[in-house]
Amino acid sequence: PKIILFESVYSMDGDIAPISEICDLAEEYCAYTFIDEVHAVGLYGDQGGGIAQRDGLQDRIDIISGTFGKAFGVYGGYIAGSERILDAVRSFSPGFIFTTALPPSVIAGALTSVKYLKTENGVELRRQHQERATHLKQMLVDIQLPVVWSESHIVPVMVGEASLCKQASDLLMDEFSIYVQPINYPTVPRGTERLRFTPSPLHTDEIMQHLVNSLDLVWDRLGIPRADQIGSVSFLDE
């Protein structure tokens, strides 16, 4: 059988897959669809089910995988699909068969998070989350940092050189107590090295202003090009 595997939210640029078009392609070629929602579950959809739920496309997906980390705050993961598909995984997948089951306490924590994010409180957290991400992007654009402006909550800031990216990360930690990992090759292509931020609903204006001020100083100290020097990679809605 043929299968199309794809993510809903791509973690490096924050872009979102054209799920409907991919499903059309799968139907044309009689292929299964397998969507990875690890960067979207809890954060999108009426009940936190992810991008496919948000767009009303869950019934067109054969297999959905997600994580209990990230938005749900614990660890582990899951797949959802038809009874036949799940039975095949249970019977033939070494990664499942030879993996120790999650502890009951972790399952309880994950279940509590899932239930909470399905409530009206979860809806409000998702609204706040999107507002915080958009606000941070605009703050960074205002000081001419080269932000990749995407539809999602992921906020990549381009550096473009591996050693500078590592130096920027070290400076942020050593002098400003801000921890952000440098993202270098082979995670991203050479020349697209970056710092990546994912603000939460609980990051206040004060916290984000500290980040922006710190990045401003780091960019100046290391001489990292700004958006107006390299051609902006920000994509703002008109």
UniProtKB/TrEMBL annotation:
Enzyme Commission code(s) on record: 2.3.1.37
Single GO BP term: protoporphyrinogen IX biosynthetic process
GO cellular component annotations of the record: mitochondrion
Pathway stated in the Swiss-Prot or TrEMBL entry: Porphyrin-containing compound metabolism; protoporphyrin-IX biosynthesis; 5-aminolevulinate from glycine: step 1/1
One Pfam family cited in the UniProt record for this chain: Aminotran_1_2
Cofactor: pyridoxal 5'-phosphate
Keyword Transferase included in the entry's annotation: yes
Xref: InterPro entries: 4pyrrol_synth_NH2levulA_synth, Aminotrans_II_pyridoxalP_BS, Aminotransferase_I/II_large, AON_synthase_class-II, PyrdxlP-dep_Trfase, PyrdxlP-dep_Trfase_major, PyrdxlP-dep_Trfase_small
Gene Ontology molecular function, alphabetical: 5-aminolevulinate synthase activity; pyridoxal phosphate binding
Family that this chain belongs to: Belongs to the class-II pyridoxal-phosphate-dependent aminotransferase family.
Protein name as annotated: 5-aminolevulinate synthase
Upper classification of the organism: Eukaryota, Metazoa, Ecdysozoa, Arthropoda, Crustacea
